[in-house]
Hints:
The structure holds two protein chains of two kinds.
Chain A: E1 4-15, E2 18-30, E3 35-39, H1 46-54, E4 62-70, E5 73-74, H2 80-86, E6 91-94, H3 108-117, H4 124-137, H5 143-146, H6 156-168, E7 174-178, H7 186-203, E8 206-211, H8 214-220, E9 223-228, E10 231-237, H9 238-243, H10 248-255, E11 305-306, E12 314-315, H11 321-339
Parallel strand pairs in A: 3-8, 3-9, 6-7, 7-8
Antiparallel strand pairs in A: 1-2, 1-4, 4-5, 9-10, 10-12, 11-12
Helix pairs in contact in A: 3-4, 3-6, 4-6, 6-7, 10-11
Chain B: H1 2-29, H2 34-38, H3 45-55, H4 61-75, H5 88-123, H6 128-142, H7 145-162, E1 164-165, E2 168-169, H8 196-230, H9 233-240, H10 245-283, H11 288-297, H12 301-329, H13 331-334
Antiparallel strand pairs in B: 1-2
The complex binds adenosine-5'-triphosphate and magnesium ion.
Residues 13, 15, 20, 22, 40, 42-48, 57-59, 212, 277 of chain A line the site of adenosine-5'-triphosphate.
Amino acid sequence: MALLDVRDLRTHFHTEDGIVRAVDGVSFSVEKGKTLAIVGESGSGKSVTCLTIMGLNSGRRIDISGEAIFDGVDLLAIPKDELRRYRGQRISMIFQDPMTSLNPVHTIGRQLREAVQLHADVTKAQANARAVEMLKAVRIPRAETRLDDYPHQFSGGMRQRVMIAMALINNPDLLIADEPTTALDVTTQAQILKLMNELQRDFGSAIILITHDLGVVAETADDVLVMYAAQPAERGGYEDIFYRPHHPYTWGLLRSLPHLATIGEDLKPIPGAPPSLLNPPAGCRFHPRCPYVMDICTTVVPEFALVPGSGDHRAACHLDEETKQREAATILTETLADSA
Amino acid sequence: MTRYIIRRLLWAIVLFVAITIITYVIFYLVPTDPARLAAGRNPTPAQVKSVAHYLGTDRPVWYQYGLFLKRLVIDHSLGYSFADRVSVNTDVLNAAPVTASLVIGGAILWMLIAIPVGVFSALHPRSKTDRVAMASVLVGISAHPIWIGLILSYVFGYIPSSGHALGFSFPSFTFLPIQGYCNLRGASQGQVCSGPIQWLYHLILPWVTFAILYAAFYVRMIRANVMETLNEDYVRTARAKGAPELQVLRSHVLRNAMLPVVTMLGMDIAIALGGAVLVENVFGLPGLGQLAVTAVGTFDLPVIIGTVVFASIVVITFNLLVDILYAWIDPRIRLG
Ligand SMILES: Nc1ncnc2c1ncn2[C@@H]1O[C@H](COP(=O)(O)OP(=O)(O)OP(=O)(O)O)[C@@H](O)[C@H]1O
Ligand SMILES: [Mg+2]
């Protein structure tokens, strides 16, 4: 059984402008020890999906429905205080901006200790020892001496390492990483991703990796969920998404990937902008930007259907199977040609 | 940290010299002759001249200022009043505890009101309590201290002792005193009361007046700061770690939200000294404000300068303390 099984998750915010349907019917599962990547443009609901599972959404009036079964327990149905016990112990989360994610007035040591002592009855010395162990695991030099330092004494990359150390300090079953490398420079990005891969091997945690960078997905993911305008567009194994993509939005994302051979050439971003979640387009939400748009797309919502002959590869698109396979093949040769 | 404190200290000295020079210059721009005022009724020119010589006002301004600095630094003396030749040190030292009691007690009271109300409002925005608090804040911010003082005197002082209100009569009684001050320890000349209980009793209305005035500002500021801090990423991190809401608030929100409040408090102690003049006036408290107002009325330069010097020393010291406190709370300043 999957470690986390999310079914038909919906998160609706009541705002002054109306109801923002930030997540509108998302389903996926995460296997033990595996990495699920969630990709999509800015505002597609990736963060809200994960924050909802963690019970960390900000805002007063929120409607949440669906299920998030974690190890047999529906996280959306249990009392707040019980959910709190899962956070930081069995499910951890790290965020996009390491510069603001640590409390500036507490030492790193204190913040790491807090994470330990919230869930285990240990002495300060034991918590400290654990903190040093974790700082070493994330390869922070001179770990022992850095416990008394404050966040502003660390660089961005080092702070993200501290965040990772803090997230993994209680050996969680699931680590949710919300664009953990977006705010970092390219070299540091690569180091952090490598570190996460290694730590996953050592600690055996499952990871949900949120990103809008398919390049990152290619390096880390076992499974991929492509989100568009609060809904899943396509979902499948790594190979399904990269070798047999079945949704025009995924094709667009793949085409906009920078490859070695195309450096210097213009990237091919998807034209247009994502729709408002206050008032999304009728039919398929992608239709206003879709180069393959048909009449049916403007009125009928496509089913998130199983791709024929696949294990669990789904896509929400009205195009016929033949066209999809032909396009997928074209893109594959394009990218292969590019990287050759 | 040491370098930081030394920098602040040097800056404090510069400030002090600037403030006293400005006070001297302003005083000499006002076209009056303190010697004439001090020489009694219808003095002869010769009398005025000899008084001027005695007071030292026949010397150039820079000389007087130099003398003042020398006295202050070497003899720790603020000079003697033009009006009654009493040592200004004595005047100031008698008045300072009154103002200090008023301002410090008022500040404690307003923070005791503002912190819980501000934090509660921030945690429950748009709730009934929040709306009531925000409406009261508006009243507090727009009210004048004298007006608040008079209303409070009327309601809690005059009405109980007059024996009738709203057309009803009742046995008159003293609820709260509306005039005068009692020393915390040992009565001074002409005072009928002393001791902590009387001291407290006489200060209740002045404190409340003060507190209403400033609590409003602080409720609003604390509310805004807490709301802003609640949205910080590190607060979300704390929740993601599994910290209970109370711990999130105590350990991650309040300390950060209080940083700007501490700075404000330091600056407002200075402004509060100004407010003290009005409140002392309404409640007949013989504090620094009263002393300065009387001295201005008689062009008693040494007393004016004395209160200015004392007030600036207090304000500068407070700012210094706040800077140090701030650095202590915020490691980015301490270690940066
Ligand atoms: N607390 C909230 N109240 C109202 N609307 C919200 C709230 N949180 C998020 N939203 C809205 O929900 C939508 C989805 O936001 P989300 O942060 O999940 O996007 P995202 O896919 O993570 O994008 P990004 O790549 O920029 O992080 C956005 O339109 C956002 O404005
Ligand atoms: Mg996001």
